[in-house]
Amino acid sequence: MEITIGHLYPDLLNLYGDRGNIMALVRRLEWRGIGAKIREYRLHDDIDFAALDIVFLGGGSDREQMLVCARLREIRSAFADYVESDGAVIAICGGYQLLGEYYRMGDAVIEGLRILDVRTENEPGRLIGNVVIRSPLSSMPIVGFENHGGRTYIGEHTPLGRVITGGGNNGKDGHEGVQYKNVLGTYLHGPLLPKNPELCDWILRAALLRKGYTSELAPLDDTMEITANRAVAERFAGKMAKRP
Length: 244
Ligand code: GLN
Known about the structure:
This protein has seven helices and twelve strands. It has helices spanning 20-30, 62-74, 76-84, 94-99, 192-195, 197-210, 223-237; strands spanning 2-8, 35-41, 54-57, 88-92, 102-105, 108-111, 119-135, 138-153, 161-165, 175-176, 178-180, 183-186.
């Protein structure tokens, strides 16, 4: 069994070490004796979604998002088919915004993929800082770091989690991120997956199941990951983080 991770536009969408998420995915597969391959795509490369098991889109500045969005619209239909056939996707911050309908900055509008029914508006001030959320996808709190001017409104979608500390999607409704099928969109950089091993395994399980691998994922020694997670959660959310 081998999992192929497609990294879209690492030269343009790679803020705050988002690449570390890919390393976490690869290592947690390899530690279990499952093969892992990374394919990096530049802006004008063709993407064979049928060959991919996990697609990763990192964060990018407004300018970089503008460069990427035209190309994403060209590959929209193949990307949407991949999502609807339960393909796994992790999209962080700028990448998350691009999965939605648009990201509006005053008169300028970055058109998104419309894979998620979410909209992002640039509003005054930025949401910057450590974030702690509670999510049904992880028994531990999920921790990360956010820095965004866009405020995302997810409508009828299911959030990834409920904010305990931080701004989340828009600083108002207490939601962070989105989970749709096997797609995770989130504002959490950090990088996210090394500090949140259960979330990493959730994605891996989804990708493996889609390939017909039904065995349980072998447990790993997550002492380091749990210690890192707990240090952040307790520092920024204290006792709140322990609530179920
Ligand atoms: N440019 C977007 C914003 O500020 C995304 C930034 C990011 O990916 N950190 O909202």
